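Extended Data, panel c. Modelled sequence:
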Amino acid sequence: MSSNNELLEALTILEQEKNISKETLLKAIEDSLVTACKNHFGKSENIKVIMNPDTCEYHVFQEKTVVETVEDSVEEISLVNAKLIDSKYEVGDIVNIEVKSKEFGRIATMNAKNVILQKIREEERKVLFDEYYSKEKDIVTGIVQRYAGKNVSINLGKADAILTENEQVRGEVFLPTERIKLYILEVKSTSKGPRILVSRTHPELVKRLFESEVAEVREGIVEIRAIAREAGSRTKIAVWSNDPDVDPVGACVGMNGARVNAIVNELRGEKIDIITWNENPAMLIENALSPAKVISVIADAEEKSAKVVVPDYQLSLAIGKEGQNARLAARLTGFKIDIKSETQARESGDFLDYENDYEDEEYYEEDYEEDGYSKGDYEDGEYSDEAYEGEYSEGDMETDGFSEEEYSDNEESEDQ
């Protein structure tokens, strides 16, 4: 019916700005023409629309059956009128009668317009959902807009996200227009567009920040094997290098602490402890209790429990403020850790037995590692993952094979 350069230009602009394909828009126009025909003629079963995607030229036809006597003028045409169009037509043939859209009434035209607009809105929502759904379980930068009750509305560019009270770090206060890093927890499709839930407390936020800040982590040379976090306070991460020439801890810390400090600043002062991952559970537990020094570790891999002995003056450091250091070490390693001072161990006989074994059988450091023993640094009391599920559940803290997370800058003086 029409070739329209303006229509072609409009579709091209929509495709570029809204990221909606021209084919989808042409399909919407086709549907709108069918809807207009239905409103104008009362039915649309015999309507056929032909469109040229290159020129946006379109034709609308009514397919009518040739009959002797017309009973339905919408679907039938008399033999006499058919032969006026082409003398070859006979009864039972199908004749295509072109429909002029300018003949449509005002209501039919408005309905057709609404069909096109509705399709455009639906496609916009779908494109937005697909874009942010692909970023689920990743970090994004958002701009704080406003507080909605105790929730915070965050603008992510093309869509808004919700930072709920449960996903906010206690004590963090945001100002309008402030830029912050967020972890996308979930993206849901709704009639009003994507509903995006974000978090500042999730342990994976720390992992993603290290991936963005540390090239070796991003490239897979250094792996983050485990994370334990108490958001806003301390995080512990265990790292491992796939390249013997690369120090995993040094790579994450950076020159003069530049890399880890950038992450600490983003987390507003949250301390981060970076330790070396070890397949030997005793060595891993010793590392996890850093910065405390450990005398001995006896780990039971089957029971997922460990007994640790630390020097008397290191006991409070090993346990940490309100048990935090021991709690995070337990979450990081997955072991239930029983920490005793040297004096307590001697009084209970545990440390004496250990010394006797050492003297009688002449164990060396290599033997300890093979048997699940290690010389090191640890604390008093039993601290396990289960004991602290009330604060951070395993479901929240474990993702993609990582355990719960909590770390810090190894600032021994502050912990003491």
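The longest helix spans residues 106-133. This feature is highlighted in the accompanying rendering.
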